[in-house]
Amino acid sequence: MHIAVIGTGYVGLVTGVCLAEIGNTVTCLDVDEEKVSLLKSGRSPIYEEGLEELLTKNLRKGNIQFTTDYREGLAGKEVIYIAVGTPERPDGSAELKYIESVCRAISENVRQDVVIVTKSTVPVGTNQYIKDLIEARLTPPITISVVSNPEFLRQGTAVHDTFHGDRIVIGSEDSWALELLEAINQPFQLPIVKTDLRSAEMIKYASNAFLAAKISFINEMSHLCAQVGANVDNVAAGMGMDKRIGKKFLHAGVGYGGSCFPKDTNALIAMGKQFDYQMPLLESVQQVNEMQRKRMVDMITTRLGSLDNKVVVLLGLTFKPNTDDMREAPSIRVAEELLRTGAVVKAYDPVAIPSAKTVMPEPVLFTSDLEEALQGADAAVIMTDWQQIKSFPLEEYRRLLVHPLLFDGRNCFTLAEMKNSGIEYHSIGRPV
Ligand code: UGA
User: Where, by residue number, does substrate bind (predicted)?
Assistant: First the structure.
């Protein structure tokens, strides 16, 4: 198939490269000239495991190309994927201006019948809106069809997830378009869910909201576990063995962050409001997530009393390991609270110091050297479960910290290994 992918963010780029890998001829379009010239040279602007290898391989084979020119990029394409961002508006709803400008560009440049596939996460009803927008400006007799094909890729493991996901969802009102998308996706050898347009759009939001709910559920349990002397990790393991529950996304901690769960739960709540439905469960999911950050600071102040001039070091700043993404990272709120209570805040991250500097409150002392970070601190707080933090020798934590006092917001260590470490260890939902 001849395919165009519009938008080369982590979703668009991974989609384009993987579609090329399974034998399609793909043109990726982006308005960012710098990004496009970087990609033409075989280098990826984002880090995704395995992506650059597949990119260079398919560039060499001639299966993939990059351009900023819509006329050239859309010429002769049978399928056009839309993978541009839908950031959050101040009221929580999704911003569709990038989608709208892509629709304009498609209607101005496409000259043949085409199937439009939406990868971007868009509010229910947007695919119909996309179809209407494009058709309104097209000169007949071109036929277009729209398909919703939401992605379930995790940042950092997006290539792996494309080939090993649990399902591929395609939604459309046109059975021939569904069949075409089924054929394109067949080489991935994954179960395919064929459904209507609006249900496909909803599956994406509902899936992310459900995963966020699982995290907030176990975090709420962790609070009670700490009170009654139970171990939340053992509770999650026991619960997760029930296949109806499943063991994934039951890892208690300082809460979820990133560009997806916070944005998508907000967007669902905003959609609910449009229909006068309050979404009380999702509001609680967000509330518990917010409480987790505050709870971490409470744990520290309960143990240390006044934080005036106490040096507290945050270990890991990103919303999860193996990314430099700081969007909605729990470390931001924790740093704000610590500063408010008078602490001197140091912050360590192995890769994200440049991006952290743009969003963390001031004054925070940054370092990408773990030893330097721990040196002389009154307490250390693990915020992200980076391998560098998990594999740093416990004797070094003991030697470098003043007390030594370690708060673990991601339950990186077992209680057994901490027992004789000589470190005072506080974690989430487990006995001290
Ligand atoms: C999430 C979903 O997992 C993907 O399926 C989805 O495609 C993507 O959003 C999206 O909508 O684009 P992502 O945001 O990359 O992916 O990150 P996750 O690996 O899901 O982690 C999200 C947050 O939840 C992180 O802050 C992580 O630390 C936290 N988390 C995750 C927990 O606190 N506990 C867990 O058990 C799992």
Answer: 204, 249-253, 257, 320
